[in-house]
Amino acid sequence: MNLDQLDEPFAAEDIEWRIQQSGKTRDGKVWALVLAYDTNRAIMKRLDDVCGKAGWRNEYRDIPNNGGVECGISIKIDSEWVTKWDAAENTQVEAVKGGRSGAMKRAAVQWGIGRYLYNLEEGFAQISSDKKQGWHRAKLKDGTGFYWLPPSLPDWAMPALCNQPSPENTNQKSPSVDCEQILKDFSDYASKETDKKKLIER
Fold first, then answer.
1. Domain 3-158 is in which class?
2. N or C, which end of the chain has less CB nearby within 10 Å?
3. pLDDT for the residue 188
4. pTM of the entire structure?
5. What are the structural domain ranges in the chain?
């Protein structure tokens, strides 16, 4: 088990973006400042992949008189369980579920999972008044609706595999098949060959 693998960046599909602030400019244009977060599903899969399904566990404790919850993520290291804790407040929507989700993400950061996201700066989303496929819908406090698309992640915040050059960007070309030339060659051969058995074998 290599715990350093917990620190590796997630794929873009394992990242969710949330609007931190939004508003309008003086000329009425909508803007939205967004932040990136990892998903709990991605965290659990990372723990499964690195530690094994039986090599980690999580637990929760409610914080008395606080309305928050603590999460502890334990990893079995050399036959001993090592636990790291962190906490989060319950959310306004689905309070218990939201609080536990936030606490687990914070506890995961204690192990290095998703910690690199703290180095990401806030970014401005692309904004559109028209509905577009893959864009998210949101509203301003004044009720103005809009659609937004998060910025792209920088190369350093992507898995190493995603940063490898694609075949078309390298000097090594993939072999290509010229279907038209193959068909022409066969047609020329067929027009001259009288043995049907050879044509079938060809």
1. alpha beta
2. C
3. 54
4. 0.73
5. 3-158, 176-201
